[in-house]
Amino acid sequence: MENAIQGFISYLHKTKRTSKNTEVSYERDLKKMLRYMEKQGIADVKRVTAANLNSYILDLENQKFSSATISRNVASIRAFCQYLNSEGMIAENPAKVLKAPKIDKKTPGILTVEEVELLLQQPQKDTPKGIRDRAMMELLYATGIRVSELIQLMNADVNLQFGYISCHSGDKERIVPFGNTAKRAIQKYLKYARDAFYSNEQSDILFTNCSGKPMSRQGFWKIIKGYAHTAGIKQDITPNTLRHSFAVHLIQNGADLKSVQEMLGHSDISTTQIYLNLNLNKIRDVYVKAHPRN
């Protein structure tokens, strides 16, 4: 089964041109399923049945995994089994009737403009780490890109002269502008801090961890949570809090939904619609509190 999983990941990379992040996610989910099946004495994909898969999903539920995590695992298994079926490696698709749990859509956490400003002031201004962290957060808030896109940025993806970055996801590319504040933060990082994270090796990655290696999403999350704590921000910070705040603040200041959709890289505008709804809810709250006839 492991060979089949590797064949599937190779297919995603070469044929579907999926992003590295997507491939890592699929592989992680499928190897977790593989370990479960091996414990059940099932090592061949041809022996996996719909009942086996349903038992595995039930096992994930019993382990108290979130609905979102289980749904992602279901999606990975469905794609894998569809691949096996189309390649003739299995006669029937056992995942055809596999159902994902219903996910309650959570309202994304949003910082106020004042909280963002306070957060961005926390990194030290005269240390390589502080200069790097400030540049990362400034760029994240200036562009609204995903954290996974931020940590994968290469030097060549940043155009300081014209103020934009190129984001790559599989075979898709989008151009996102950034302003002068982010530009100055990146210039300072490149001039005074970036070389401090390398020994004898050079890397094309724009932002790295303190060892000069690619930074993980979890690593950046710890960084931003630490600064939020120092700033006294009480709400729970997620890796994409600045991305959500970027979108809402743009809409609050008159940006149209289509432009925000393109900058965020949403394939469906209904995904971007949630930020408009958040803004309308905020306007409604202000109205309720302030209108004399309410």
Structural description of this entry:
It is a single chain. This protein is mainly α. It folds into two domains: 2-86, Orthogonal Bundle (DNA polymerase, domain 1), CATH 1.10.150; 113-289, hpI Integrase, Chain A (Orthogonal Bundle). 57% of the residues lie in helices and 5% in strands. It contains twelve helices and three strands; from the N terminus they run H-H-H-H-H-H-H-E-E-E-H-H-H-H-H. The protein has helices spanning 2-16, 20-39, 50-62, 67-86, 113-120, 128-143, 147-151, 180-193, 217-231, 241-252, 257-264, 269-290; strands at 158-159, 164-169, 172-177. The protein has a three-stranded antiparallel β-sheet with strand order 1-2-3, covered by helices on one side. A hairpin with a 4-residue loop joins strand 1 and strand 2. The mean pLDDT is 86.
- Quickly count the helices: 12
Compute the number of structural domains: 2
What separation lies between the terminal Cα atoms? 64 Å
Major beta sheet summary: 3 strands, antiparallel
Specify the CATH homologous superfamily of the largest domain. Intergrase catalytic core
Order of helices and strands: HHHHHHHEEEHHHHH
Radius of gyration: 22 Å
Uncertain spans: none
Structural class by sheet pairing and helices: mainly alpha
CATH topology of the largest domain: hpI Integrase, Chain A
Helical content class? 55-70%
Subunit arrangement of the protein: single chain
- Please report the first level of CATH classification, the CATH class of the largest domain: Mainly Alpha
Strand content: under 5%
Please tally the β strands and state the result: 3
Query: What's the average pLDDT?
Result: 86
Strand order of the largest sheet: 1-2-3
Name the shape in a single word: elongated
CATH 2nd-level architecture of the largest domain:
Orthogonal Bundle
